[in-house]
Write a structure and sequence with these properties.
Blueprint lengths: L3 H42 L3 H11 L5 H25 L5 H25 L3 E2 L2 E2 H21 L18 H18 L4 H12 L3 H25 L6 H23 L3 H28 L2
Antiparallel strand pairs: 1-2
Helix pairs in contact: 1-2, 1-9, 2-3, 3-8, 3-9, 4-6, 4-8, 5-10, 6-7, 7-8
Length: 291
């Protein structure tokens, strides 16, 4: 005698499995599409790599958050490296400035991750430390975005900086501040590097993007080497596909950016930075309300 109830249960289980498999495939496809978008944004405005890559890896590709930060370093580092080489060929990278900026930032990130972050109290002014740090980061992003949207008068546009005239103390001070913030929030800091290069050192938007990509490439690849030495296991098929798409997006972003005037690029950067800053602020305030 046929047990119809058993067959119905088996059929329902099969449908559930197929539904989950379809959903997983859909999330995977969407994740890879977003990888292309991340590369495009990074190529066009020189920022947004880590802050977009980690959520894509976690929420769409099912990578654990701690592992996703290690993956992000390789993805963002290799993508930024291609971008920096492309901008270098166009003479839109201040290499000495990028190297001098990177060294204090790397040391500060290391010091922050290993000494400052573990010593922070769980509550800062009655706010959980993770939320407090992210709110500070969001506020700085809103300030940076607002600065980039601020109109520039012709008289305020300076000549390209001469390396001998650069205030290296100011450059290293900016580097330490951004390295501190990057170490606290685990993001690359491109949102703050570009406005700093423009406001304090007089770089044009495209020069700032090229120099920022070089700084991000140096910092991310150095960070990835640390994770590799520490023995982090890498899913190379997933990483290879993701990186190929971000590299494609990077070239598209550079192509689009090259056709835009500096003023329009500043607007794109400013709007994108403000949007991400507002979203982070909303998320953190929401988590505080439910805390």
């Amino acid at each position: 005698m046929v047990d119809f109830r058993y067959e119905a249960e088996q059929s329902n289980e099969l449908r559930c499995v197929l539904k989950l498999a379809r959903r997983k495939n859909q999330m995977l496809i969407l994740g890879y599409i977003l990888a292309l978008f991340m590369g495009l944004i990074l190529g066009m405005i020189g920022a947004g790599g880590a802050i977009l890559t980690v959520p894509i890896l976690v929420y769409f590709l099912g990578v654990m958050p701690v592992v996703a930060t290690a993956y992000s370093l390789l993805i963002v580092g290799s993508t930024a490296l291609l971008g920096s080489i492309t901008y270098w060929k166009k003479k839109q990278v201040y290499l000495a400035m990028a190297v001098i900026f990177s060294i204090p930032a790397l040391l500060t990130v290391f010091f922050t991750r290993f000494y400052i972050v573990p010593s922070l109290p769980e509550l800062i002014v009655n706010i959980p430390k993770n939320s407090f740090v992210m709110i500070i980061f969001a506020v700085l992003m809103l300030i940076a975005g607002g600065f980039m949207l601020k109109p520039i008068s012709v008289s305020s546009i300076s000549e390209p900086p001469v390396l001998k005239c650069i205030d290296y103390f100011k450059l290293m001070l900016c580097s330490i501040c951004i390295g501190l913030l990057s170490g606290l929030v685990g993001a690359g800091g491109g949102f703050l590097i570009i406005p700093s290069l423009i406001a304090f050192f007089g770089l044009g938007m495209k020069d700032a993007i090229g120099t920022s990509l070089t700084i991000i490439a140096i910092n991310s690849i150095a960070g990835f080497q640390g994770d590799r030495i520490a023995g982090t296991a890498f899913n190379w098929p997933l990483l290879t596909g993701f990186i190929l798409l971000t590299l494609t997006g990077m070239m598209l972003g550079i192509l689009i950016g090259s056709k835009l005037h500096d003023k329009k690029l500043r607007v794109v950067f400013g709007l994108f930075t403000l949007t991400v800053g507002v979203l982070i602020m909303i998320k953190e305030i929401g988590s505080l309300i439910s805390y």
